[in-house]
Amino acid sequence: MKMKQVCSQTGLTERTVRFYEEQGLVSPRCFEENGRVYRAYSEQDLADLEAAATLRKSGFTIAEIKRMKASPMQLVQVVQSCAGRLREEGQAAGLNAEALAGLDMSRIQDCQALAA
User: Fold this and answer.
1) Which of 8, 24, 77, 101 shows the smallest number of beta carbons within 10 Å?
2) Maximum C-alpha span of the chain
3) Where are the alpha helices (DSSP H) in the chain?
4) Kind and range of the H or E element at 39?
5) In terms of Cα–Cα distance, which of 32, 113, 22 is closest to 62?
6) What are the tens digits of pLDDT across the range 32-65?
7) pTM, whole model, 2 decimals?
8) How many angstroms separate the first and last alpha carbons of the chain?
9) Among 78, 70, 66, residue whose Cα is nearest residue 20
């Protein structure tokens, strides 16, 4: 399967597919034709891309996904670690939202004043 078909079937952009490939989350077969190098994505590659995209949307980092792929026995540890990180980020986001809601916007005229 070629890139356009992969993008059409997964809903991912070409840039995202190439990024996941660069990160080692998928390894399509490469072949040369008429002096150009092409990639042929298998059904397994497609499944790996879809899994990576879903896991990213769920909050997993690329490093966490790579770790789970490389060592399925660490899956529980990685999931627990991710859950803890997301809880902490959620708490920090809540504190930031409260701080922003409490600002006196009549005194803030630019980005520097907001940052202060």
Assistant:
1) 101
2) 64
3) 3-10, 14-22, 43-57, 62-70, 75-101, 111-115
4) strand 36-40
5) 22
6) 989 998 899 999 999 999 999 999 999 999 999 9
7) 0.81
8) 52
9) 66
